[in-house]
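Hi F.,

I've been meaning to write this up properly since the lab meeting, where we talked about keeping a consistent format for the predictions we share between groups. The idea is simple: the sequence comes first, exactly as it goes in, then the structure tokens exactly as they come out, then a line or two of notes. No screenshots and no reformatting. I'm using this chain as the first example so we have something concrete to point to.
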Amino acid sequence: MNKNKKIGIGILVALIVIFSVVAFKWIYYRITHAVSDAVFVEANTFTDIAYRRDSGRVIELFKKEGDKVVKNEPLAKIDDTDYKLQYKSLKYQIEELQNEVALYKIQRQRILVGTGLEAQANYYKTLQASQDMQSIINKVKALDAKIALVNKDYIRFHKLYKDGVIPRHAFEEKATELNNLLNEKNALLNQANAMSSLSKAQNITISIAKNNQKEVQELTQKIEATKNQIKSLQAKLKNLGDMISETTLLSPISGYIVKKFVSVGDIVKPGQPIYAAYDPSSVYVLDIIDETKLHGVRKGCLVHIHIDALPNKHYEGVVSEILRASAAKFALIPRDITAGEFTKVAQRIPVKIKITKGNINLLRVGYSGEVAIDRCGSH
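Output, unedited:
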């Protein structure tokens, strides 16, 4: 065997050994790792940012695509002129109603004070009149008894005077006494009639007091109704004030702006996206892996990550979640297997991977790559 032949055989043997080692390592790596290239960078906080209630013309945009943003930082501003005019109008209405309430209260207080003093005076007047009337009645009764006695004497003296038994002056004195008693009784009866008229006047006053009481009730009802109206307008005012403050759109997260959907001058509506942003700290890797490769893959398994756009950067992670449904279940046109006629294909199961090593700030949502998941469940 010549020298060249020996060299050729040696090279061939070396190549076979090298190929065998490489093939063994490749096969062993595939046995101990689930390798997949259906890999995408995703973010939990990838979100569209929009006005919740406000609508109007955009007058300012504070961020561009790719800009960094912190939570509660202003992103956009819409024209709040109409909202401020409505706010001013509502505030004026509330002030007017508050003035009405104050006026109603003053009117009610005046009626209450006047009615109270008058009622008190009428009480004492009625009490005194009642006492006076009883005294008059008692006096009239006493006079009636006295008049009856004097009248008998008067009749007897008149007969005696006619018969010439008594002198004229004795008869005249008895007549004068009777006349005086009758005049006194008439005076008491006149006083009683006057008190009766006073009682009628007091009844009129009581009627007026009842009307005043009714007016007080009406004023109280107006006060309560106006207060309720004020509360309703104050709630609207607060809501409008919140909407004015919300005309400045604030970022709900800290992260980066990835998309701007509108321009200055555009008219926007509630819910219409203004920006899209994501938080880089929430970035994860989503692997859509064949179901045939899932054996041995468990939550917590180590993952080696290669990102196509960052070939010189190495990332590592762990399996954080294996979803319970295949990607086909969420396809726009899912497979129809009701007829029993279908081609069996390997389904893909989404696996979420938490990044534990590598600079996540270099990653962009949508990057693709390749992962190798350690089959830790088969060890």
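Notes:
The longest strand covers residues 33-43.
Helices lie at 3-32, 81-162, 168-245.

If this format works for you, I'll send the rest the same way.

G.
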